[in-house]
Design a protein that fits this description.
It is a single chain. This protein is 42% helix and 13% strand. The protein has 638 residues and is of the alpha/beta class. The protein folds into three domains: 198 residues, Rossmann fold; 155 residues, 3-Layer(aba) Sandwich (Rossmann fold); 138 residues, 3-Layer(aba) Sandwich (Rossmann fold), CATH 3.40.50. The strands form three sheets. The chain has a seven-stranded mixed beta sheet with strand order 7-6-8-9-11-10-15, sandwiched between helices. It has a five-stranded parallel beta sheet with strand order 1-2-3-5-4, with helices on both faces. Helix 12 links the parallel strand 4 and strand 5. Helix 14 runs parallel beside helix 16, helix 14 packs parallel to helix 21 and helix 17 packs parallel to helix 19. The longest helix has 19 residues.
Length: 638
């Protein structure tokens, strides 16, 4: 399609309605300007770049052909939604994306009427779209519903469950398969585009539907033969797919960067009155920006970067990341124990298992975006005497809770859960915060639940998990760099259910679970200046609890503060239940838990989120003063 280079068109587009007033010949220029604007915006903020670059033309085409927001457009995961945000009235705020008070890095219903469904986790778009399509039909509506899903997200079973249901309902739903990595069937140029346009058109569909109506009146044996003939004919010309078997009308593959191919096909499927349709679009992640195209991860997620060179800003922290400490510790242990295997769900780099895989490729398994399968797969490995480590982000482990309960915990299988991104994660906001893992794991009988206070403790917990064979065990650790503590040469196995005292005092006790320990120590030092002698202890375990330690702290102190970077119902709830059932709360002990607030916090710097929750040193000190009714809290507010 020829591109006209006149005045900037993107400046004239405040909404998709403005886009739709342009001539088709101007859309190529819009795409070029949109790509340049996207690169500039993300260079200032960091974020998910590669996926958005790959769908620039597709985004332009979708908003041009469909009547959004009346037509519902759903982005799976929504890593690729930045171009969509720019075209839907949020261009001026794109330099605030993933910043405190700014735009979300994902689709968010509260942010725009154009965000039909919020996302953050993958493989949900077809299910949500089917729900919207059925609701439309129940309300006698006529709008379209379009679900855009990437080929990676199609590795999750939920996507196929939704497609199977959509096919059975014969629902009028459009699914765009954005194939940007492993092409299911690579396009073959102009002939492929011509065939896609042909089979998506009304003439072909009308003939196909008439043939189906005709075959319904044939005897059974002839009807089956006619059906097979039609399938064979379509397979011969277009490559029959499993999508047809699920009840979808398959169109493609087509070049997702060629508007001359995209626009007529999308118009055809828009106007079709048949059941579910899948359009297979092939794109290139990172398209149009050389540093992204040449990068192994296609600049999937980036920090701030220089637009000219593509060089990303580097972290100034000297301490190693928790993720790298986990990976290196597991490698060290695996050299001594050939039964150790590692499993991740499409996050090898994010979990550090790419490093493990480089050393032990035959003992490393990436199962795709399939956390449910990952957990039960680990359960199977455990039955045969292997020591599987399931390295999964806290937020994604939620997706496999049934498997944790039924396939692992009830059978007492020694699956090791390495829970990365525990606690607040900053710019990724509430969809990725690791809030609930302690809450849903600690109630399970026989489950051992640990949290590392620093990177040295994490190394000990890896060793502990290796040595523990009595049942399932988990350990949580945060995103980002450690505290810079001295590291042991090798981790040592901890005594199950035993914490440690790191600072002795007499009046106030702070019992910390996880990485808020450093803040607890700072708070204790400040409390000492006010004459409040303070003990600090590291619980290490939420299950089983160190009841001896808790009883001692309760007996010997006037105030007990429980600190955890997790939601209500986790470690503090376990301690409070023990204190209540043991009768210690009847003896005048003042107990106060500090946990995440009962709300979803939007994106901000992690330290600000921690402060807002009262989980930093200042918040702990303030809680102590409020508990004691002391006036010093006024001094701290000043």
């Amino acid at each position: 399609m020829p591109k006209e280079s006149t005045t900037p068109l993107l400046d004239q587009i405040a909404s998709p309605a403005d886009l739709r007033r342009l001539k088709e010949s101007r859309l190529g220029q819009v795409a070029d300007e949109l790509r340049a604007d996207l690169i500039d915006a993300v260079s200032k903020t960091g974020g998910h770049l590669g996926a958005g670059l790959g769908v620039v033309e597709l985004t332009v085409a979708l908003h041009y052909v469909f009547d959004t927001p009346r037509d519902r457009l759903i982005w799976d995961v929504s890593h690729q939604a930045y171009p969509h945000k720019i075209l839907t009235g949020r261009r001026e705020r794109m330099r605030t994306v993933r910043q405190e008070g700014g735009l979300s890095g994902f689709a968010k219903r509260a942010e725009s009427e154009y965000d039909a469904f919020g996302a953050g986790h993958s493989s949900t778009s077809i299910s949500a779209g089917l729900g919207m399509a059925v609701a439309r039909d129940l309300s006698h509506g006529t709008n379209n519903v379009i679900s855009v899903i990437g080929d990676g997200a199609m590795s999750a079973g939920m996507a196929y469950e939704a497609m199977n249901n959509a096919g059975a309902l014969d629902a009028r739903l459009i699914v765009i398969l954005n194939d940007n990595d492993m092409s299911i069937a690579p396009p073959t140029g102009a002939m492929s585009a011509y065939l896609a346009r042909l089979v998506s058109g009304q003439t072909y569909q009308s003939l196909r539907n008439r043939a189906k109506d005709f075959t319904r009146h044939l005897p059974g044996f002839m009807r089956e033969g006619a059906r097979r003939t039609e399938e064979y004919t379509r397979a011969f010309f277009t490559g029959g797919t499993m999508f047809e078997e699920l009840g979808f009308y398959y169109v493609g593959p087509i070049d997702g960067h060629d508007l001359d191919h995209l626009l007529p096909v999308l118009k055809n499927v828009r106007d079709a009155k048949t059941g579910p349709i899948l359009v297979h679009v092939v794109t290139k992640k990172g398209k149009g920006y050389a540093p992204a195209e040449q990068s192994a991860d296609k600049y999937h997620g980036v920090s701030k970067f220089d637009v000219i060179t593509g060089a990303q800003a580097k972290s100034k922290a000297n301490a190693p990341s928790y993720t790298s400490v986990f990976a290196e510790s597991l490698i060290q242990e695996a050299r001594e124990d050939d039964k150790i295997v590692a499993v991740n769900a499409a996050m090898p780099a994010g979990t550090g298992l790419d490093k493990f895989g480089a050393v032990f490729p035959s003992r490393t398994f990436d199962v795709g975006i399939a956390e449910q399968h990952a957990v039960t797969f680990c359960a199977g490995l455990a039955t045969e005497g292997y020591k599987p480590f399931a390295a999964i982000y806290s937020t994604f482990l939620q997706r496999a809770y049934d498997q944790i309960v039924h396939d692992v915990a009830i059978q007492h299988l020694p699956v090791r859960f390495a829970i990365d991104r525990a606690g607040y994660v900053g710019a990724d906001g509430p969809t990725h915060a690791g809030s609930f893992d302690t809450c849903f794991l600690a109630p399970l009988p026989g489950m051992v639940v640990m949290a590392a206070a620093d990177e040295a403790e994490l190394k000990h917990m890896v060793r502990t998990a290796v040595e523990y064979d009595a049942g399932p065990i988990s350990f949580r650790y945060p995103r980002g760099n450690g505290t810079g503590v001295d590291m042991p040469e090798r981790g040592k196995a901890l005594e199950i259910g035993k914490g440690r005292v790191v600072r002795e005092g007499t009046k106030v006790a702070i019992l910390s679970f996880g990485t808020r320990l450093a803040d607890a120590v700072r708070a204790a030092e400040e409390l000492d200046t006010y004459g409040l002698s303070t003990t600090v202890a590291d619980a290490r375990f939420a299950k089983p609890l160190d009841t001896d330690l808790i009883a001692r702290l309760a007996r010997e102190h006037e105030v007990l503060i429980l600190v955890e970077e997790g939601a209500s119902g986790g470690f503090a709830a376990q301690v409070l239940q023990y204190l209540a059932t043991s009768g210690m709360l009847d003896q005048g002990l003042k107990v106060r838990p500090i946990v995440m607030p009962d709300s979803y916090l939007d994106q901000a710097a992690p330290e600000k989120m921690i402060a807002q929750a009262g989980l930093d040193a200042k918040g702990i000190v303030e809680t102590v003063f409020r508990t004691l009714g002391r006036e010093e809290s006024r001094v701290l507010q000043a």
